Amino acid sequence: xxxxxxxxxxxxxxxxxxxxxxxxxxxxxxxxxxxxxxxxxxxxxxxxxxxxxxxxxxxxxxxxxxxxxxxxxxxxxxxxxxxxxxxxxxxxxxxxxxxxxxxxxxxxxxxxxxxxxxxxxxxxxxxxxxxxxxxxxxxxxxxxxxxxxxxxxxxxxxxxxxxxxxxxxxxxxxxxxxxxxxxxxxxxxxxxxxxxxxxxxxxxxxxxxxxxxxxxxxxxxxxxxxxxxxxxxxxxxxxxxxxxxxxxxxxxxxxxxxxxxxxxxxxxxxxxxxxxxxxxxxxxxxxxxxxxxxxxxxxxxxxxxxxxxxxxxxxxxxxxxxxxxxxxxxxxxxxxxxxxxxxxxxxxxxxxxxxxxxxxxxxxxxxxxxxxxxx
Length: 375
Description:
The protein is an alpha/beta fold. It has helices spanning 10-20, 23-30, 37-48, 92-103, 117-123, 139-151, 169-174, 184-191, 194-203, 229-238, 251-259, 281-292, 307-315, 325-356, 364-367; strands spanning 66-68, 71-73, 77-79, 107-109, 128-133, 155-159, 242-248, 264-267, 298-300, 320-323. It has a single domain (4-370), classed as Alpha-Beta Barrel (TIM Barrel). It contains 15 helices and ten strands. The strands form two sheets. An eight-stranded parallel sheet has the order 3-10-9-8-7-6-5-4.
């Protein structure tokens, strides 16, 4: 039986990925900030949130589509921006782009993607959003904005929760760095995982592909602390398309963002990779919806592991959700067939959860009733 056929849940994909990937690569994908209690809290918050089973309702015709910036999406989830995806498997960026094109859902293209932004949006057939980090004095950042505009991106996602890169001890123990460097410890690690190492060697060392611009070298560890509300105002002035601000966990900040003219906020803790003591995004989400009103778009990522999790986020106030590292697990576990297999699993999990909770569609007023009252 092929590896993809062994994936029946995101937990299966993670288990298989852990076996196949070098320790350094797995811990880069899987790790979180500090002692990783933030990641544990995210998972606990999802597990404690219960859905409300309903019976004897005709749920034979279920529709998972939702509206997103005036377009109809086949599913209420897309692909979160993730850096250096090609570490999970050669060509991973384009596997994700093909998935986005096939399902007509947004592919979040990271500033530190392994494939040029122009190639990704081409393969995604336009279904791609560009995720932007502000860094240094911002000169290079605004060059990237102009490049994204020229490439045809219509939605820009400004990530604001990384004024300084969080400390992730698992990465540090293995000496993980970007640009990617191989020393004696990494060589031994790779030698013990030959299948990944040989295929990756044949494809060439993954690079940060969006920094081949004159006079701009990206440093992952460079401070991003100089970004301000004035930076946001300048970005709003130069970006004509949809502007999403990602990494919002404070209601007061969210209200200010709405007043500043952004088109959506994304409730996110960066997958618990930045501030270990940050609140769980799923706990913040209902407060965010109440504060911003019923019409303002709110997106969600962090901690999602299943279609049921996506339904919980939608019922808690999100308009749309994004899966992240579970997709990299699937690629590491089974390549593009593994990715497609996990996507089908997520769709099935959501569809079945809708049936169990009496839902035929994901209209917000209806889906909000799927959350069970606390006992």
